[in-house]
Amino acid sequence: MAAISAAMVKELRERTGLGMLDCKKALKEADGDIEKAIEDLRKSSGMKAAKKAGRVAAEGVVTARVEGGFGQLVEVNSETDFVARDDGFKGFVAKVADKAFSEKSDDVAAVMAGELEADREALVQKIGENIGLRRIANVEGDTLGAYVHGNERIAVLVSLKGGDEALAKDVAMHVAAVNPQFVAPENVSQDVIDKESDIIKSQPDMAGKPENIVDKMIQGRIKKFLSEISLTEQAFVKNPEVTVGKLVKDAGAEIVDFVRYEVGDGIEKEEKDFATEVAEQLAGS
Fold this sequence. Notes:
The chain is of the alpha+beta class.
């Protein structure tokens, strides 16, 4: 049985909005697996999808650049947000982005080889934090638009067939704000649909109902689920009266693809309380 820490309970509470005892019990039953605990809670209580984990291992910045029919996103990480605002760190990020873009390369190792790796090591020695290029995404297309959130924590590239750069940038801004998972409902994999169907079927209000009624309810909720995670079906952030799909179609364009980077997305961060951190520092000194 995995140990259930206060930090795990806190994260589950923040992501689900449920009480401490419910979260602690769910974590015990899931053997400390937060994602499984969320799935089990959705089945047992009818809870809606949980928020994504808010705390992540890495700080840093993401950049976006478009020229002609080629666009690129780059994420470079530091350990703290303080370092991410440092001029030396920003200069290193600019050199990394310049090289990756000039070579049109998404190979992290190849981009960092040679002079950049030496620069990285020197910066680590100077600042005292680990710094690294995490990932690169290349996007090509007829019409590209980029958007970087003001604090450089979120960057998006959107590829359209038709339309213009201003439209693509508007769609990129929407993606940054709403974070869709797929371009359109038809792009959602059957595995994702099957998993959501299983969760819906296990919810309390399905119990005891005839199979044909359950099937209709599942179909209705799956349709709603697909509209929530699909870019084309979402209400446009700048004008909720129209969907993103209609906005783009009315402009004579079509959404081909998008890529969204958020600093540290998907990396778990080890949390320590202040007293423990101070004690460890004293022990090491």
